Amino acid sequence: MRQGFENIVSKVKECGKKKVAVSVAQDSAVLEAVKEAREQGIADAILVGDEALIREIAASIDMDLSAFEVINEPDVIQASLTAVKLAHEGKADMYMKGLIDTKNFLKSVLDKEVGLRTGGVLSHVAVFDIPTIDHLLYLTDVAFMTYPTLEDKVHIINNTVPVCKACGVSLPKVAPLAAVEVVNPKMQATVDAAELTKMCEEGKIEGCIVDGPLSLDLAIDAEAAKHKAATDRKIQGDADILLFPDIHAGNLVYKAMVHTIPGVKNGCILTGTKVPVILTSRSDTFETKVNSIALAAVVAEELGKAKK
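Request: output the structure for the sequence above.
Response:
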């Protein structure tokens, strides 16, 4: 049975509506997404920002604000700190970026007093629903960690596995990607991939299957795996997590998927934080923002279970 974003939305409805705190909420695209998320039963929202502007935008998109809590804080920096504090104190299950630049938004996430630090490494995961693939793909890291070391890659895997499990993948398959599928000492990505595979086999990385190095075709295309006679691999075109060697490779693949695959859907969150962080960009579509809220909601449920 094919797995897509509709399965994530169904899981949200099973676990109950979550609440998202929006930082600097006077953004029409974000308010439209928040409105849709509430109508779909995904999440309620606390809107923090310039109340006059929030109400003006809401009126222009026919959004009834009586269903939302609005906290007036015209100052952008203070609004972000007020919003993140709601998540820090457990009054919100997720934290979302509004009309604030990424640098200052991340400052609020990392704030020592009211932020969402856990002491671990932060990383980004983009979840893709591609019509020609029967399961969701989890791309990491395509937006946050630039040149991850071997240790960083372990943290990225550990951050991403719970996202997979929240979406219903009990034992995700992790493909550390490289240009080739054999170890070449001159290509650090292949060396790291082999070491990650060994660490998983030794129980140092848990809750998943790691098989690398793998080229992208072997990771996602079963026919390519057959053609290359890769029948001895743990992953033969059925990878769940695509672990990129650096941000360039990840970002290029991400944008190629977004802009060239008809019918593709995706959602993104920042992980390694106390609660899921929805860090969408101005260029992301309305659907991507709604999908990101749904993704954050199921991950918030999983994090809540883990704490208990």
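The CA atoms of residues 34 and 285 lie 13 Å apart.
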